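Course exercise 7: structure representation. Students receive a sequence record and must write out the corresponding structure in token form. The form below is the worked example handed out in class, using Inter-alpha-trypsin inhibitor heavy chain H3-like (638 residues). Read each field label carefully; the graders check that inputs and outputs are placed in the correct fields and that the protein name is recorded exactly as given.

STUDENT ID: A-19
EXERCISE PROTEIN: Inter-alpha-trypsin inhibitor heavy chain H3-like
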Amino acid sequence: MERAVVQVTLFGLLLVLASTLPNKDDWNIYSFHINSTVTSRYATTVITSRVANRMDDSKEIEFQVRIPKNAFISKFRMFIDGQWYDGVVKRKEKAQQQYTEAVSRGQSAGLVSSVGRTLEEFKTSVTVAAHKKVTFELTYEELLKRKLGKYELQIHARPMQPVKDFKVDVYINEKAGINFIEVKGGLSTKALANAITRTHADKQAWVYFYPTEDQQKTCDGCGEQGMNGDLVIVYDVNRDTSLGDIKTSAGYFVHHFAPSSLSRIPKNVVFVIDQSGSMSGRKMQQTRIALIHILNDLAEDDHFGLITFDSSIFHWKRELVQANKKNLESAKTFAQNIQARGATDINAAVLEGARMLNAHPREGSVSIVILLTDGDPTSGETNLEQIQSNVRRDIADKFPLYCLGFGHDVNFEFLEKMSLQNNGVARRIYEDSDADLQLKGFYDEVATPLLTDVTMIYNGGTNLTQTNFSQYYNGSEIVVAGQITDNDIETFTPQVVAISRDRRVTFSNTNATVEYTGTDFDSHVQRVWAYLTVKQLLEKELLFSGPEKKNVKKEALELSLKYSFVTPLTSMVVTKPLGEKTDVLHKPKEGGPTQARPSPVGHRPSARTRNGKTRLLAHPGSFSRKQHKRYQNKFINY
Ligand SMILES: *[C@@H]1O[C@H](CO)[C@@H](O)[C@H](O)[C@H]1NC(C)=O
Ligand SMILES: *[C@@H]1O[C@H](CO)[C@@H](O)[C@H](O)[C@H]1NC(C)=O
Ligand SMILES: *[C@@H]1O[C@H](CO)[C@@H](O)[C@H](O)[C@H]1NC(C)=O
Ligand SMILES: *[C@@H]1O[C@H](CO)[C@@H](O)[C@H](O)[C@H]1NC(C)=O
Ligand SMILES: *[C@@H]1O[C@H](CO)[C@@H](O)[C@H](O)[C@H]1NC(C)=O
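STUDENT ANSWER:
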């Protein structure tokens, strides 16, 4: 309180500001720290917020932070009045039951909800007695994915008020050596740029971000409520040309494979573009712009096809042709004139794309289909399972299908499943002013195939994550984790076999790359294995049916519980002092039709009944089983 008054006087705006300072007089975040440690691309971040209730009455104090969607929360606890209260990760149904009981007793539940493109909001609260303090501590973990030649660690800072002791500490440790490191994001600009210190020494890097209270108020997008924005740490590691990085510890290994000094393989690409009525206006305009940029970037030895569809199919040309100047000019004119109208026959369009590629076999090339759609199938075959089965039959594992779901009216789960069934990935394109860049960005990720039929072989390894990959693109990375049989490092021999532009290649270079870093205390490699395994099991759950589905679900659940990950199958039950409301935190679903639209500032997803004791914070889509960030281990990352 004293501090607030001093500042206000300084600004000479006592009356005006005092009335706009929310909550400033009754509670105070006196310390807010974010500590992120990245080892071999696995980031563990701890957010610690210390809050004091300065009032003469007890007060409900809220803790609300945003974390990357791709991360799993692994720990949450509160320290109140000399005691820690540790949250417990439980099977979702069990936690849900506890929550239902709590609600029927007039208590409440909290949640994690999806916010914008990349973040989820975690929110809980606790009642703090007069003149007492509370410490909130949240831990989350994620494997950073290499995309277009770099890793990005996103840290969102929005403490809700300027904080005297505010710190972000990032420590990166990569044994391959750090090639470059940059700090980006809204919080790295203007007044805040001075608050960043960056140190980089071969295998280690440190980023410190210590803005003063004044800086927290005067930066871009900041105000009297303090900062609200991102700090994005961008880096890449050094690579040798061979087998890549293998780290082993306590019986587990993780292998990062991303060779870059290979020749690109010419590609055959068919673009299947939705021109149904719902695409009209800005979406269609952005699609035209993106297509023209993409066409400009095709290499002369690429071959391509372009079809648009509504309830009918429109060919630019019936067969694939070479990306020479003349053809590209003609295709650009076609792209320029795509008009939106009619319904959506996804089945016929994708099958036609597959037909064109099947009719165009070419030695030493790579084929891909890219589908862009903004809606559900409404014309021709509309049974989703039948479409999936037709597409699978015609593609027959010969090339990947990438599905781009434009906007929020798409059935993303349908696209996701269809992509996974055909060795591809689905990506959401957000309806926004940069949608054309999102489209082009996705294309860039698959623009340069370097290897096909990649088989990762680990003699002496067991319980491996995915080991076969149909294609490897420049700028991405293949990650495989597993256990070493009997922890026998001597007999453990990793090897990669693949097909490059002109020949079959084998990567093996064991003694130089396998590094034993382990102590039993360093469970980090094991957690990477668990993280990847859970992500891939969740994908399989989407893909499978019947007993297989049940088995992978069971396995994913067991691992989530063992490693205390809040996944779509588990929930965090927040433990609080006796007599307080119960909070149950679920991981939200990305992709369903109920998914919240991207919102730049916090959105309140739900009904709130402030008067009673019940405060049910429920997002319609947040209790679902599935989760958007799939295909962890494909080369295309999101
Ligand atoms: C951040 O976390 C790491 C790992 O737990 C710890 O070693 C380090 O001391 C922490 N740094 C700060 C500034 O708290
Ligand atoms: C792959 O990317 C690297 C930079 O990340 C670049 O130096 C290299 O030339 C690219 N390879 C091809 C074949 O484009
Ligand atoms: C690892 O694999 C072995 C069999 O190879 C199996 O018995 C064991 O349960 C697996 N461990 C885990 C954690 O999945
Ligand atoms: C992976 O590929 C190899 C060789 O291409 C094949 O023998 C093996 O069955 C494949 N494994 C899986 C799990 O698909
Ligand atoms: C493996 O180690 C042996 C002996 O230590 C060495 O001669 C050989 O060059 C190493 N192989 C590679 C690929 O580094």
